[in-house]
Design brief:
The protein has 271 residues and is of the alpha+beta class. Helix content is 45%, strand content 11%. The chain is built from 12 helices and 6 strands. A 6-stranded antiparallel beta sheet has the order 1-2-6-5-4-3. Helix 5 runs antiparallel to helix 10 and helix 11 crosses helix 12. The longest helix is centred in the middle third of the chain and has 15 residues. It is globular, with a radius of gyration of 19 Å.
């Protein structure tokens, strides 16, 4: 990533990156596209506005941030350390994945805060993106920031009624309780194998394989996690009845993102 400072803004040059594909693909829920095409959001309660300068030239502007913030916060968050060109080259050994990589060329896996991602995907169950964003927006508004586990230690399903999250509130409370008491730890999940981490997360009420896999991929950067929903079931049935190709080994989660968006395009369901 090349960058230059322009007043209070920073211009970066970064290939294999597109704002809507990365920020509005369902992996994070605090980003909103503005009328001018820019996106506003937050990470670790630090706000950011980012816009495209020239998509062909792969240039973007991060507004009102310091060079220190770029290098110590956003560089890691946007996963600029990972060579997605090489990952796509590898995945493109498979014909279907090659087409998927071309279609969803600008997706990157964000390195999100683990608790925020886990709690967000608990909220996401049987839900759509606008409602998920609404619930999370009310949570942030109530606390004045995204609340920590300690912040929420005394919450109950009733006290969270302001979220209008329905049955998900009791699942959120159970996650807070298990993490606050140390029955599960963020670091323990991070260090565990994919299988063990999945089991730990599924001990939380209401957390099934899909929510666990989403949390592990998007909140713990376990790139071998492979969330399966109706769209991914369809792509597996149509293209990979005998399992994923060898080129996805260890990066199944990245392959899933390309395939997920490609199969929705095939069926005219790209949002």
């Amino acid at each position: 990533m090349d960058y230059s400072v322009k007043g209070n803004d920073i211009i970066i040059k970064q290939s294999d990156f597109e704002l809507s594909q990365t920020l509005d693909c369902g992996q994070a829920f605090r980003w909103e596209q503005q009328e001018d095409g820019s996106f506003t959001g937050a990470y670790l309660n630090r706000p950011l506005r980012i816009s495209t300068v020239d998509i062909k030239d792969c240039t973007f502007m991060l507004h009102d941030i310091s060079e220190d913030e770029l290098l110590n916060i956003w560089y890691d968050y946007f996963d600029f350390t990972t060579d997605y060109s090489e990952l796509k080259r590898r995945l493109s050994e498979d014909e279907t994945l090659s087409k998927a990589c071309d279609f969803a060329y600008g997706i990157r896996i964000l390195r999100q805060d683990s608790w925020e991602a886990l709690s967000s995907f608990i909220i996401s169950q049987n839900n759509n993106i606008p409602r998920i964003k609404g619930i999370i927006g009310r949570l942030v508004e109530h606390y004045g920031r995204y609340p920590s586990i300690d912040d929420m230690a005394d919450e109950t399903a009733d006290s969270l009624s302001f979220l209008r999250a329905g049955f998900r509130a009791k699942y959120l409370v159970d996650a807070v309780d298990k993490l606050y008491r140390g029955e599960i730890t963020i670091e323990g999940i991070r260090q565990a194998s994919l299988e063990d981490a999945t089991k730990k997360l599924m001990s939380i009420k209401g957390v099934g394989p899909k929510v666990a896999s989403c949390a592990l991929l998007f909140g713990f950067y376990k790139l071998d996690a492979f969330p399966v929903d109706v769209w991914v079931k369809r792509v597996l049935s149509e293209y990979y009845p005998n399992g994923l190709p060898d080129c996805t080994k260890g990066i199944e989660g990245i392959a899933q993102q390309y395939l997920f968006h490609y199969i929705r395009k095939q069926y005219g369901k790209v949002e």
